[in-house]
Input
Amino acid sequence: MMRLPPFRYHAPRTAAEVATLLAGEGPEAMIVAGGTDLYPNMKRRHQMPKTLISLRHVDELRGVQMNGAVRLGANETLRALEWHGALKERLPALWTAVQSISTPLLRNMGTIGGNICLDTRCNYYNQNWEWRRAIDFCMKCEGTVCWTAPSSSICWAVNSSDSVPVFIALGATFTLVSHEGERTIPALAMFGEDGIEYLTKRKDEVLTHIDIPDQGTARSVYRKVRRRGAFDFPVAAVAARVALDGDRVADSTLVLNAVGPKPVVCEEAMAYLAGKPLSDEVVTEAARLAGRGAKPLDNTDHLSMWRKKVVQVETRRALEALRP
Amino acid sequence: MRNSDEPLSPERQGLRDQLAEGYQMIGKSPIKVDAMAKVTGQTMFADDLSMPRMLHCKILRSHVAYARILSIDTSAAEALPGVIAVLTGAAMPIPFGILPVSQDEHALCLDRVRFVGDPVVAVAAVDEETAFEAIQRIHVEYEKLEPVFDPTTAIENKQEPLHDYGDDGNVHKRVSMEFGEVEEAFAAADLVLEDTMFFEGNTHLPMEQHASLAWREADGRLTIQSSTQTPHYLHKAMSKVLEMPPSRVRVIACPNGGGFGGKSDPFNHEIVVAKLALMTNRPVKIALTREEVFYCHRGRHPVLMHVKTGFRKDGSMTGMHFQSLLDGGGYGSYGVASTYYTGALQTVTYKVPAYRFDGVRCFTNKPPCGPKRGHGTPQPRFALEVQLDKAAVALGLDPADLRLRTLHPAGGITANWLQVGSMGLGPCIEKVVEASGWKDKWGKLPAGKGVGLACSSYISGAGLPIYWNAMPHSGVTVQLDRGGGVAVFCGETDIGQGSDTVLAMVVAEVLGVDLADIRLTVADTHTTPVDLGSYSSRVTVMMGHAAFQAAERAREVVARSVAKRLEVPAVRLRFAENRVFDVQDPENGMPFPKAVQVAEAEHGTIAMAGSYTPPASPGKYRGAGVGPSPAYSYSAAVVQVDVDLETGVVAVEKIWVAHDVGQSINEMLVIGQVEGGVYMGLGEALMEEMSYRSNRFGVHKIPSMLEYKSPTTHEMPPVETFLIESPDPNGPFGAKEVGQGPLLPMMPAVANAVFDAVGVRVDEVPVTPDKVLKAMQAKDKRYGPKSFPDLRITETMRVKTLEQGGDGTAPRPPRAEKQEVKSS
Output
C-alpha cells in the first residue's frame, strides 16, 4: 500500500495553542482535522509537511450555535452537520451540500473547515508520485507546466468543495485566527485566482468558525453534478439564493463551483434577475448568463463541453426550484 | 446423472434412486461455508499474511510508454540502509505467459518496456517505506521508441513492433473463418444491416488488491501464497521461470477478495517475490497499490466491431459476417483466446445458418488486456443485440418476438460447430417480458422513459484447457474419518463466488452428511488434486462432477459394507441426515460414523478420488478449441431507463433478469451471482472505461477507485431475478454456469432502452450522457464509430456447416507460419 511520509504530530487543545504552534513551526507545518483530504495527498507526495498540527482535540472549534444567525465551528464533522435536524430545516441548501460530500465513512471524519480548505483537484495532479513522474509532473507540484492548459501561466486545478458555493451564496463569513490575532472575511475573499494559491488564508492562520447571517425570507438551493450519487466530487455545481418581493426577485446570489480554480459569483445573471419574476424566459436567460462564467477544462470526470452545457441546465433548475 | 456405458453397481444405483426421490441439499440455500469467517474477519486474505523476518517488496515501474532499456543503476538503492536485495530482469531471463503461444512476459523487463507501469526493478527492504525510498533512487536510462496507443494505428505497422512474434508487426493474432456461404446468405436476405460499434475497455476492480507472500521452506522448497484465481497455472509459470521442478514449488491460492478474471494470469510480482525470497532466504511480501492493479489489468479488451447480418421478413437471420479489432495492450495474456471469443458465441443464441468471423488483435503501449467476466463475448454480444433491436424496428417486429422466433434449437449444432445442449432462452425471454410489462411499455412510454431487451449465452467452462493435455480438468479427493468427518481436497479457488460451498454441498448431498461435517482443503498445489482454476465459469460444472464422482465412490465402498452388515440389498440404502439406512425400513440403519467404521474395518482407509474431463466437441477445425463447452447458460433481461432530455443522463429504474442455470446448487448464491453480474454490467454500460492520456505518454488517465467510475448502491436499481431451471445432461445435477452470463445482456439492454426512451442509437459502450446528447443532436440520431479499418485478411478458412454436410473439419486449413516465441 502507499505509506505516509514521516512527520511530527502535535495535538493541541485550544485554538490559541494552534496559533502559537503554527507561528513557531513556520510554513513547513500544516493543520490536519479529519485528514480525509490531507493524508491521501501526503501518501501521493503532494504535500510533505514536516509537522502536522491536529485539531482533533480542539473542542472549542466544534459545535453549532443557532439564533437568528448560525455559527459553525470549523472543526465540526460533516456527519454532525448532516444529522443536525435544526440546521437541515434552517439551511437546507447547506445541508444538501454537506450530505453530498464523499461517503458516510469520510463524513464521519471530515470537517466543515476541511471542506472549505479542500485542496484544489485535477486529474493530472491527484495521482501518485510515480504517475506524476511519468507526465513530468505539473506546475501545482514539482513541475512547471499546467497540462490542463499547457500555455497557461496559472494552475487550473478545480475548487471542488460542495460547501463553499453555498457559504458564498448565503453571505457567510470566515474567521481566521493567528498568533497576531483574529480577522473575519467574507467567504468569497477566502479564495484566490489560481489552483495553487487557492486560499488567501495565510499559513499561520487557522479557520475557526463560519458565521451565516439570518436569511430572513430568502431561500436557497444547491445542485451538484457528478457521475454517481455518492463518493464523487462535483464536476459542476450551483448554489442559488433568492429573496422574493411578491413574485419578483428582490435580491439573489448565484454561485458556480467546480468549473475552475475559484468559485464563480454570477454578477451578470444576478443583475439581470433583479426585479424580475422567475418566469421560464427569465430563468433560462439568467442560466445562460451564469453559464458564461464557467470555464471547465479537461481535468475532472466528464467532458468539459458537457459540463459547460449542463451547468446552465442546473442553474436554471436551481432557479426554478426557488419559485414561490 | 452422466452418460456412462458401464453398468451401475447396486450401490451406485441406490444413489441414483436416492437423488431421484429428491435432493437434501441441492437447490437450497444453506449459508456459505466461509460466511462466518468472512463476516468476522477471520478469513486470511493474502495481504493479511505476515511472517517473522518478512521483507517488503516494491517494484519500480516504467514511467515511459515504450522504450529500450539502456542501463539500470541500482547502486544508490542498494546503499540505502534497510534494503536487503535489488532485483532486475537479467536474473530471470525465461519468459512466461498464460498461453503457451504467448510466452511474452518477463518478471522484470529485460530490454524493453512496453507501457507506463511495466515492471523494471524490484527491491526487498525491511519495510515498505524503505522499499519505496529505494525505488526512487534507482536510475534507469531509456531510449524512447515511438509508442502506439490504438489498434487502428497499430495495424498499419508503422512503429517498431512491440514483440518479435505474432502474425505481422503489431498484429498479434489474425483470424478468419467462414462457415457456410455468407455472401449467398446476404443475397437471400430481405434486409441486410451493417453496423460499426465500439466497446470501450474496462477493468475488473476487485476490492482486494493483489498481494503475495513467498518464502523458502527449511527443506529448500519454495512456497508462495497469493491472491490468484489459477494456482495451477501459476505453479507452472513459477516452476518454469525459477527453473525449479514443480515438486519443489508450492502455490497456495488465498481466498480472493474478488477476481473477475483479473487474477487469472501468472503475474510478474508473484515471480518477483519468490525470486527475492530465494535470494534473501527471508519471506518476501508484496501488496500492490490500487494504481498497480490498474497496470496488471488483463481486463476487457476495447473492441471495434463491424457486423453485417442478413434478415428475412420474419426476423430470422440468413447469415452474419462479424469483424472485430481488439486493442490488446502490451502483452499477449489470454489475447489469442479473447480474439476467438469475440467471434465464437454469436451462434448459440439464435439460428445463424451461415457465419463468417474475422478478428485481429493488435499490441499497443498500454496495460495488457485479457479476460474479464464474459471474456471476449460481451463486446460482440453488445453489437449483436443492438443490431437485433434495429432489425426489429426496421422489420416492424417486437424485439422480443423476433428473438423468440429465431432461437437456436436445443441439442443442435451451430454453424461453427458448437454443440448446444439444454437451451432455456425462450422461457427466459418470456419471463422478463411478462414480469416487466414489456408489451405495454416498449414503444409506449412517454418521452425520456424506455425499456430495452437483450439476451446472452455463456460457456459453462471451456472445453479445452489453457495448455494442451489429455488429463482431467478437475480432481477431487474425498477421505472419510472414523468420526464421521469428511475431508475434501480440491485445487479449486474460492474467489467469492462460493465454489467452496458448492464443493461441500455436492459431497454432502451424496453422503447425506451435514455441511459442518465436511472440511475443505483447497487451492494448494502440494495437497490438492489439480483444478484448472476459477475462470471460464468452469468450477461448478467441472469440480462438481469430480466431487460427485469422488463422493459416489466413497459412498459405494461404505454402502457395500453396510449392506452386508444390515443384510439389505445395497440398492435400497439411503444416505441422509447423517445416517445410512434401508429405504424400505428406515429404522434399520446406523449413524454415518458407524457406517464409515464398518467400511474401514472391511476395506481399510477410505479415500477416493474423482475427476472430470469435458466431452469432445464436434468442431475439429483450427480454432475450434475456443467456444466449446459442456453446456451453455442463457440469460435475458429487460432494463427500464429514465433519460434526462437536457443532460443525457441515463438513470436505470429497474431491471428484470432471467437466467437459465440448469439447476441451482445453492439458489441464494446463484441469485447473488446474477445480481453481481447485473451490477458489473451496468457499470460497463454506463460509466466504466479504461482511458489513457495519449498526450502525456499514454498514462492511465484515472488509475484510482475514485476516478475510475464504477456504480455505487445509489446507481443500483431494484433487480427482479428469475431462475429458469431445466437440468442440463452435462451438468452435475443438471447445473450450468451463472458467474458470467447474466452480465452480458446489460450493455445492449441499456442501449436499446435509451433508443426506446429518446429515439437515438448510442452504438458505443459506455453510454455516457455526452454521447446521448450528441446522438440527440446528430442528423442520423446516432453516436458511434464511423468506420472500420481493413483487417487485411488474405486467407479465410472455410468450413462446411452441418447442413451443408460438413464433418466439423476444414478441408485444407491454410498453413499459418508456425509461431515461435522468442524472448525479447
In short: Residues 818-824 of chain B have pLDDT under 50 and may be disordered.
